[in-house]
Amino acid sequence: MFDESRERWHLFRPERNDVDQIKADFGLSDVNAKTLLARGIGKDKNELRDFLNPPFEFITCTEGLADEHEMTRAVDRIVKSIESKENIVVNGDPDADGITAATIVVAVVRHLGGQVEYDFPTRSREGHGLQPRILDEAKSKGVSLVITTDCGSKDIPAADYARQLGIDVIICDHHVLGKVRPTVLALVNPYTVKGPSPYKYLSGAGVALKMMIAVVNKMDKQLTGEYLDYLVALATLGTISDRMSFMSPMNRALVNEGMRGINDTRMEGLKALKDISSKGIEDLMARDVSRTIVPRLNAPGRIGNREEGIPDSRIVVDLLLLGIGKQNAKRASSIVEKFADVFEMDQSIKRSSHGVQEAAMVDDVNEQRKYITSRIEDEIEEYLESGVDVSKDRVVIVRGKDWNPGVIGIDTDRLRERFLRPAMVLTEYSGEQFLRGSVRSIPKINMYNALDKVGDLFYEIHGRILYQTEVQTELGPQRVNAFGGHAQACGFSVHRDDVAEFTQMLRDEMDRLPEADFEFSYEIVDTLRFDQVTPELVDDLHKLTPYGQYFDYPLFYVKNVHISQIRAFGNRYQRNRTPHMDFFVGDATHQNKHRINAVGFGLLDKYNLLKQQHDHDPMLAFDVISNVELHRRVRRGRKPMTEFRLNVVDIRIAGQQNLD
After folding, report:
1. pTM score, two decimals?
2. Predicted local distance difference test score (pLDDT) of residue 573
3. Phi, psi (rounded to 5 degrees) for 389
C-alpha cells in the first residue's frame, strides 16, 4: 500500500532573484512569494496584479461568454418569456454546481417578474442532463421553453426529443463540447467560442450568473448590491464544488466577493445552510466551504428519490430561495410541513425558522449518504482482493451490483487517492441493461479525453454510440446521451454487453500514455524549522486567499519531529475502521519544548507500519509534509474553538527522504 517510489516529495526551488522581485514589487513575504512562483504565477507583473486583486468587472462582464449569435438568441428568448409571463422550466444537473446554477436562473427570472419552475433528474434512475421526463412534464403544462444548467452540451437525443415536442431549449453549460452539437434554440457555453477565453474556466453556476446578468442588462434593469452579492455567493458555491481553477482571475474575483456574501448574507435560506453546515464557524474560507457546505448541497442529489420520500435536489433550491420574496416564504411554510411528515426532527429545530428546518433536512440526507457510502466501501474491499491487480493496472476498475449511483463518485475519489492513479467504479442494477460508471483522475491524466477517444473508436468500429442509456417517455423508450464531465471527473452509462470491450479499450488507451503521466508527487513550497510553524504563518498565507483547485494551499516540509499521544478515529459508520489519527508533533532536537496539535487523514496504517519496521522505538523521529491551518473545533454543547494545527499529509522516517 505504501509504495514510496510512487509518492515522491518534490521541493520547489525558485530563483532567489524572482522571490526578491515579488517581495519588492508587492510587499509580500518570502513564503508567499515562493507559493506564487511554485504555481507559475509572479514573473509577469500585470498577471500577478490581476491575480492578487482581480477587478470587480471580472464578475459582471458578459461579452464573449459564448458565440455571439447563440448568446443573442438565448437572451432574447428569455426576455420574451419574462415579458410575456410565459412559464419557464429549468432542468438542472443534480449536483452542487447544477443546483446553484439553477437557483441563479430561477432567482433572476422571478426578480424580473417572470414565471419559472425547476426540476432535476432522479440520479439513481435517470442520471444527469436534459431529461425526457422533465420535457414530458413541461409539455403537459404547456411550457415551451426549457433552460438547462450545468448540463446539455452532449444531450443530443434529448434535445431532438424536445424538438419533437415543440419545446425550445436553451443550454446553459460549461462542459467541453462533443464533435456533434445538440440542435437547440441556443447553446450558451464558453466552448462555442474558438481560442483561449477566461470564461472557459467558469463553473456551470458562473456561466448561469453571467447569462442572467446579460438578460438583466438587455431589459435595462439593475441588480441591487445585496441581491448581486447573493447571486455571486451562489456562483461561488458552484465554482468551489466543481473544482474550477483558482488560477483564473475571473474565478478569484467571484470567490473573493462570494465568500463575503456567504459570510454576511441576510438571505434566510443561504444563512441557514451556512449556519448548520459550519456548525458555529462565523467566517468561512473557501477551503472550509468544500468540506462543509458543498457535501450537504450534493447529498440530496446523490441519494434523493421523491418516490421513496427522500428529498432530492429541489429541496436545496427551495432552501436557497428563502428570503427572496413573500411568495417564496409562503411556499417554504408548506415545504416545512411536508418535511415534518417524512423526517423526525429534534424539537429545537422544529421551533426554529423555516430556513433552519430545511437546512437540517439537507444535513440529514448527508448523514444517510455517509451510511450508504460505508456499506459500498466494504464490498469494494472484497472486489479489490480478487478483481484488481494494483501492481499492473494503470486504471483501477471496480465493479459492483445495485450500488447507489449517487454516491459511487465518493468511493471513486477514495480509490484514486489510495492508489494514486485513475479510478473507475461501475455498478449494474437488477433488471437493467445499462451499467453506470464514475471516473476520477490524477493531475496529469485527462480521463475525459481518454473516454472520449474510446467512444470515438467504438463508434468507428460498430457505428453506434457507446455511452448511452434508455428512459421511458410519452413517445416510448428513448436512448439518451450518458457521458459528461471534466478532465478529472466523469460519469457515463454503458450497455452491459459492451462492458468487457469498453474496459479493454480503456486499458489500451491508458497503456498508450507515457509513464511520466502516472507519476505522483507532493509539491512542497518550502522547508520550515519547527520554530517557524506558528499561527502567524497562517495569517500571512491568508493574504493569498482564495486557495482552491490548481492554487492549492501550500505544503511545507518539517524535519525531525516526534509524534506522540496518538488517537485513532474514523467514520462512525465504519465500525472498526479508524484510518485517521489525531496526535501531537514536537521538536525531536529538543531545542523547542512546544508541541503542536496535528491530524493525519488516512495516515494511521502508514504510521503503524513505520513504527513496526523500527522496533517500536519510542524516540523515533519523523519528517513530515503538512499544511498549517487554524482549525475550528466543534464539540457538542460547547462553543466552537479555534486551534492552530498541522494537517499532515505524509510522513517518513527522519533523514531517509531525499527531495528531488
Report:
1. 0.85
2. 45
3. -110, 95
